[in-house]
Amino acid sequence: xxxxxxxxxxxxxxxxxxxxxxxxxxxxxxxxxxxxxxxxxxxxxxxxxxxxxxxxxxxxxxxxxxxxxxxxxxxxxxxxxxxxxxxxxxxxxxxxxxxxxxxxxxxxxxxxxxxxxxxxxxxxxxxxxxxxxxxxxxxxxxxxxxxxxxxxxxxxxxxxxxxxxxxxxxxxxxxxxxxxxxxxxxxxxxxxxxxxxxxxxxxxxxxxxxxxxxxxxxxxxxxxxxxxxxxxxxxxxxxxxxxxxxxxxxxxxxxxxxxxxxxxxxxxxxxxxxxxxxxxxxxxxxxxxxxxxxxxxxxxxxxxxxxxxxxxxxxxxxxxxxxxxxxxxxxxxxxxxxxxxxxxxxxxxxxxx
Length: 353
Known about the structure:
This protein has 13 helices and 10 strands. The protein is α/β, with parallel strands linked by helices. The chain has one domain. Strands 1, 2, 3, 4, 5, 6, 7, 8, 9 and 10 form a 10-stranded mixed sheet that branches. Helix 2 links the parallel strand 2 and strand 3. Helix 4 packs antiparallel against helix 5. The radius of gyration is 19 Å and the shape is globular. The two termini are 24 Å apart. InterPro entries: Acyl_Trfase/lysoPLipase, PNPLA_dom. Keywords: Lipid metabolism. This is Patatin-like phospholipase.
């Protein structure tokens, strides 16, 4: 059977793998991409990465940076028992049920309940006080029309942003800023981001839930979020600006381990149809990208990774059954990763980015 897991490495990561394989201590940054239900295809890999590989003793911090569902996955890793958090997250996420055309308030309320299940009774405290995991939650601070929850105003602002983005991603700054809430203090490797206006704010027990909820608040489908103690404004999905984090991963020399749904990255929400922006940037020199292979995806229900259209495409029972099948199948990705760790056959399997 063809491999289920695809490995692609930048030149610096490839050199490291050839010299000494993959070691948890060598990993410095772990990004998490937006994608809603797509995260289920990585859940089996996450269980191995979060519950086994990355739990080895560390002498330096591991910086976790994610947008939307990516930040929620990484919030599981930053808890004391990450696999238990992943299981709580999956159980609550799979059971989402909505009427046709649900109001944003209902989707936000449901998402808040899923987030509470993910965090459990002690999750917020464990994330903020984690001994080595430094969680960075990416959100979008909106202004002008995109800050409004009035549908006509909001969608007019988004349409203008999309048109301008076709010319340059830098035009996003006319209506929005990247806002990162994190537990890294002055040691964040992302403090020097200059590609777009970026504000950094502390991630605390008091604002953690609101920041995570904002990071996944899709415009039009969910209400905008106001985060207590943060810069005033309306916070929305971090994936608007950073759909699949494709940014300067910092000045360090450690590896960037990037579990992802695809073998490519789409920088921003408005770049989905702009295929010329899907190329991996110079920032991936020390990155190892792990993704499901085409052969693996072809074996999933309907030959595809879950997505938000499944809420419309299927009834609740069928959707939940398909998603559970994908979650179970994703264990193959974790098993292949374990095999590579045990055999050290990285060089045979990895492809250059």
